[in-house]
Amino acid sequence: MKHFDGFPHVMVSQQFSREWLEEEFFPLSDEMEKVFHGGGCDILKGKRMVSLFFQPSTRTKMSSEMAMDYLGGKVVFQTENAREFSSAAKGESFRDGIKVAARYRPDIINLRYDRQIALEVKAENDREVCDKIAAISDTPIINAGDRNPGQHPTQGLLDIRTIQNCQGGIDGKSIVMVGDLWSGRTVRSLCYQLGKFRHISIDFVSPKNLQMKDDVKDYLHRHGIPFTESTDLRKVVSECDVIYQTRTQTECGSSMDKKEGCFSINGEILSLLKKKDAIIMHPLPRGDEISEDVDNDPRAVYLTKQIDSGLVCRMALFTIIMGGKN
Amino acid sequence: MKHFDGFPHVMVSQQFSREWLEEEFFPLSDEMEKVFHGGGCDILKGKRMVSLFFQPSTRTKMSSEMAMDYLGGKVVFQTENAREFSSAAKGESFRDGIKVAARYRPDIINLRYDRQIALEVKAENDREVCDKIAAISDTPIINAGDRNPGQHPTQGLLDIRTIQNCQGGIDGKSIVMVGDLWSGRTVRSLCYQLGKFRHISIDFVSPKNLQMKDDVKDYLHRHGIPFTESTDLRKVVSECDVIYQTRTQTECGSSMDKKEGCFSINGEILSLLKKKDAIIMHPLPRGDEISEDVDNDPRAVYLTKQIDSGLVCRMALFTIIMGGKN
Amino acid sequence: MKHFDGFPHVMVSQQFSREWLEEEFFPLSDEMEKVFHGGGCDILKGKRMVSLFFQPSTRTKMSSEMAMDYLGGKVVFQTENAREFSSAAKGESFRDGIKVAARYRPDIINLRYDRQIALEVKAENDREVCDKIAAISDTPIINAGDRNPGQHPTQGLLDIRTIQNCQGGIDGKSIVMVGDLWSGRTVRSLCYQLGKFRHISIDFVSPKNLQMKDDVKDYLHRHGIPFTESTDLRKVVSECDVIYQTRTQTECGSSMDKKEGCFSINGEILSLLKKKDAIIMHPLPRGDEISEDVDNDPRAVYLTKQIDSGLVCRMALFTIIMGGKN
């Protein structure tokens, strides 16, 4: 099996090449969907996960821990308690915390951290983060979402795989991303995934003060991905294949300057969305940015296929990281 | 096996008929008491519980999760963290949260919610709640206590079974309920259980501003259960079979207007309680409403048989809900 | 196997005699280190731990729960939620909480309590605590750290075993303890361990207002252990075998009056520390009282051998307490 860059640590979307996604990850995720519907397997029997969440995250934590169970592995310790671990100043506790957890020799550490991991390990850029993490821990560390604007690479994997499976491919697709793009780590991780594909076009729709940050835009430029920036979802939605609606990041202190209909999905948007096989995605939890009646539209996948993808993509990733040890 | 109304969801005490209690539930609970004392069994091997608690509850959560273990099942995800799940407005997140958790295909979801579930699902009345829940989730949902004044149906089951076992039957018993009856979901669920039995009489003792609510009193009227309302425990206790002392619901914002001896159990109450085989119950945790010296009276069951009942009743309920799947 | 005083409860360091440490505990801990590196065993298969933490503690909780897993046992319930359990006044809830948890018949209860357990059970002195606990619970209760100034006896065990293994023995060693000694339950538990050995000398270094309390100093006097008290680490460090640096107990409301270099370890202290085989210990988490460049000194064991000792000592202790039941 081909390894991804930075193996076995998972820190940013840039680690995963198109080749790896298409040859290793997507096929294994499809297999895992069958394992899931079959009730599970024992491939990770005896493997131990430590699950450290220093920000609330019911969904990512639940799907990661259930993924372990469906594979026959165990979560031997989990916490949602941020206070002590992250108490000390200046990131020293981050390194100490990882070193201690790794010392107990779990097979994987699933970590949601409440600051930016790159800053904690003094990485100059995204590519360097895995090297810095590797210097701290031999145990695989998964970034299960660090502080906005950061990344959420397992969400990026499940999102790109949702597009792949629902659309039958990624090349040539037109994607609209709407909401608080500045602090949305999920849209950031998805953009870093999309940059690897061809003939993609992206429309960013956000209030002016919450536009996508330059690091992502620079990356898209370098990879030849055209994008627009605008402030009204209604004007860009007609020909798109994917609408990715982000949530308002109230937990992170920023709030969206809401204008009626510009940044949220409702019946009017559905009527403007011409493509019958378009899909509507959302990382959840949702506030009022998608009205409830949208849920029943067959194009809404945020409570169905995107959720399933979250479980099976984590099953695939954990298998790739830990499966070879037996 | 006969199913209860609203099967497999457990939302309110009204779902359980007298016939079901006596023919299915009480006998299975007694069997489960033997399984418990024998160290457990494997009847739910491979079954998965998700345990979502959005209000603190050491006792209900602990006994539910240990019940799964004694049956050979697993708790594959648990949280005591309310913040994210319940962040969004107006109940939409309730439906989303349940849908997402159910999508991962656990065998049961044990849910303590911090608002009233009936309101969240827009049920017009208690009987409609299970239908509304069923429209959201195929996975069995257990109401492990919703916001006061709501219900706590598994507590209602363990309480009615405690009376059954300690008193050798329920018909003809005289029950005193004392404390904050307005917001006490446990006394509410117990009243909805008692309404199914015959020749019951109930004395409600509470401050005037914390009297039992009309929905329960209407239900008792319809079922021919006489009750009194008064403000001094000492005056009603002499001939009763059961004293059910509720706790002060400080966590819910209401507080009891305490008067010396009127609403709490101490040596004086014990001396007034004539029946040798009467029992004293409390849902715990206790404040100072039962003084510590009462614990050693053989009639006090709140730290002994009532606790055991909590475990074995949940073992019985989970077996009924999940046991038939294998 | 010889039992320790107060068996099976673990409340204070005084329970463990030198003979028991040397004949039972140290050898079994060494065996457990091999079990750990071999990936685990099944000696506690079927055993159940309840893990109740009413103060944050990532390290103690993690190593205890992982110790159970490495032995084949299970953590059937865990909480980090202090609110309800400890809500009621004056210790009544402590007894109720323990009684309820014990009623579910786990094999061990691992408890971090946010008040002093001795006060909760009205023990007159340390030796009486186990008797008082035994009157509440047949189930073994582990004090995983009670409120400062209290004790942390499993930390005391891992610390004395770290000295034993790194130094090849304890008799004759010179130990410096530095930091907030008044509220440091770890240094307190370690002193109660050291009193059993011979030709020990201790230097306490702390701000005047955070000196070691009299109960510990009286104990050392009675056991013939000489100690000094001073306010500058640099002046006592040259000939010592062990520096035990405590953390600032900000969570407990006291703060250390820091003076440059007096109470913290840095390159200057390393250069003054003459013995090549001295060791530097810390209970973690660390703030800025040990600078990061000290980590790479071979004498620093707080992120390596001391961590390992935490896991294997708990494995040994749990085996002694539960292993005989099968």
Structure write-up:
Helices cover 36% and strands 13% of the residues of chain A. With 326 residues, chain A is of the alpha/beta class. Chain A has two domains: 13-151 and 309-321, Aspartate/ornithine carbamoyltransferase (Rossmann fold); 153-306, Aspartate/ornithine carbamoyltransferase (Rossmann fold). A five-stranded parallel beta sheet of chain A has the order 7-6-5-8-9, with helices on one face. Chain A has a four-stranded parallel beta sheet with strand order 2-1-3-4, sandwiched between helices. The longest helix of chain A has 20 residues, at 18-37. Chains in contact: A-B, A-C, B-C. Chain A binds chain B through residues 36, 39, 56-59, 61-63, 65-66, 69, 80, 250-251, 284-288, 292, 303-304, 307-308, 311, and chain B through 46, 48, 50, 52, 74, 76-77, 79-81, 83-85, 87-89, 92-93, 95-97, 99-101, 103-106.
Strands side by side in the biggest sheet of chain A: 7-6-5-8-9
**Number of structural domains of chain A:** 2
CATH class of the largest domain in chain A: Alpha Beta
Q: Structural class per helix/strand content of chain A?
A: alpha/beta
Shape of chain A: globular
Query: What's the order of the H and E elements of chain A?
Result: HEHEHEHHEHEHEHEEHEH
Uncertain parts of chain A: 86-90, 250-255
List the helices and strands and how they pair.
The structure is a homotrimer.
Chain A: H1 18-37, E1 48-53, H2 58-70, E2 74-79, H3 92-103, E3 108-112, H4 117-120, H5 126-136, E4 141-143, H6 153-167, E5 174-178, H7 185-194, E6 201-205, H8 214-222, E7 227-230, E8 242-245, H9 267-272, E9 279-281, H10 305-322
Parallel strand pairs in A: 1-2, 1-3, 3-4, 5-6, 5-8, 6-7, 8-9
